[in-house]
Input
Amino acid sequence: MKLILLGKPGAGKGTQAKKIADYYNIPHISTGEMFRQAYAGKTELGVLAHDKYWGKGHLVPDDITLKLVEERLAKGDCKKGFILDGFPRTLVQAKALDKNNTIDHVLYIETPDSLCIQRIAGRRNCSQCAKDYNIYFNPPKKDTLCDTCNQQLVQRPDDKEDIVKQRIIVYENQTQPLIAYYQNNIVTVTDNGNDSPDKLFQKIKKALGK
Ligand code: ADP
Ligand code: ZN
Output
């Protein structure tokens, strides 16, 4: 199964993408995660993409992103399918993807802005194992330390308030048009914040009809 996940920043795409990938046994491909790992690994591309683009709330240019995704999709584990999280994010990316792939479903997680903003503000990750927390919705047991490794939780550099505002503008201008572009193929699941991640995942499975 080949899936695309759409939704605003902070919609909870990463959380659901992991569950979907586990359940359908397909690789979870997150371009945001790829950029963060490249930055953590201090590769030339990783540092450039952070310093010039995503660290400021701008998109990484299409040519860089497309090359990264094409290389990833060429790996053997993608033969059985994949879930793309954070890609495509522009019409150029969507058209390039559709040229070489038949996407089964485009899943759109629809969320109110207020929920996304609160989720982003509370989002933290373990500096060692990267496990996700949210200081409002899913806090660690002790202070600001990871339950598993007891290491400090940290905030993503692009989750700071002024950068988030920029990411929302970029989303509205560049990514929202994809909902119309994929209109014949889109499955919408609404998350109004009342469902647990597991409950929302049950809704997603039902919506995908599998
Ligand atoms: P979120 O969905 O929470 O905004 P992601 O982890 O998907 O965050 O992405 C983080 C940042 O990485 C984005 O704000 C953007 O700058 C960059 N990025 C991720 N995916 C893409 C993409 N497909 N094209 C261009 N830039 C991207
Ligand atoms: Zn940890």
Q: What stands out?
A: Residues 126, 128-129, 131, 146, 148-149, 151 surround zinc ion (ligand 2) (CB under 6 Å). The first helix runs from residue 13 to 24. The longest strand covers residues 105-110. The mean pLDDT is 95.
